[in-house]
Design goal:
about 10% strand; single chain; about 200 residues; mainly alpha
């Protein structure tokens, strides 16, 4: 009996760690932020998962014996596989969402999922893109915003600190993948104008 309990405890702890790792990854995405608004069905599913997760963690805190906590009853053995299945559904939807964003702005294919989630999750503030520009654009370290208009991009700056004024400002409003595409086209156009006048 003792060997069976230890074996079951090991299986449950392994399952628990898998669920916990996926929960941590998805919590950053679905608790608040812009992505939760874009994926309301998955955000609601995650809220339900989160409630169950809090119950599991409360129970673990209240039950000092690991074996008693894991195999005292069938709750964890039944709940953890269900939570994993639901978390995987959330992750699958999230992957589909990221794929759509990458198809709209193909340079996102060169950005890792965590970095892309950070870009999309902070999209309501266009100034946060600065940290990711080098991974999205060739040799663009930063962009300059208009002094008075918070969302108006007026220039790009290279790693070598060379500044290229844009022919027309780009408004960093709406979906980040759209205005980044506009910024890319305007940067190319502006560079072409600089090249032809040089």
């Amino acid at each position: 009996k003792w060997v069976t309990q230890l074996s079951s405890t090991t299986d449950i702890i392994e399952s628990w760690m898998t669920v916990q790792n996926l929960w941590i990854y998805l919590e950053a995405v679905f608790v608040g932020g812009d992505i939760a608004k874009q994926l309301p069905k998955e955000a609601k599913r995650f809220q339900s998962i989160d409630k169950s997760w809090v119950k599991i963690m409360t129970r673990a805190h209240e039950t000092p014996s690991v074996v008693s906590c894991c195999v005292g009853d069938e709750m964890l053995g039944q709940l953890l596989p269900h939570l994993l299945e639901q978390l995987e559904l959330c992750q699958k939807s999230l992957s589909g969402y990221l794929e759509k964003k990458r198809l709209i702005f193909p340079r996102f294919f060169f950005v890792s999922d965590p970095a892309l989630l950070e870009i999309l999750g902070q999209a309501s503030d266009p100034h946060t893109i600065q940290a990711h520009l080098l991974s999205v654009f060739d040799n663009t370290k930063s962009v300059k915003f208009h002094e008075k208009d918070y969302e108006k991009i007026v220039a790009i700056v290279s790693k070598e600190e060379e500044t290229i004024e844009l022919d027309k400002p780009v408004m960093a409003q709406g979906n980040v993948e759209i205005w980044l595409g506009q910024l890319l086209r305007m940067a190319q156009q502006s560079l072409l104008c600089v090249d032809t006048t040089a």
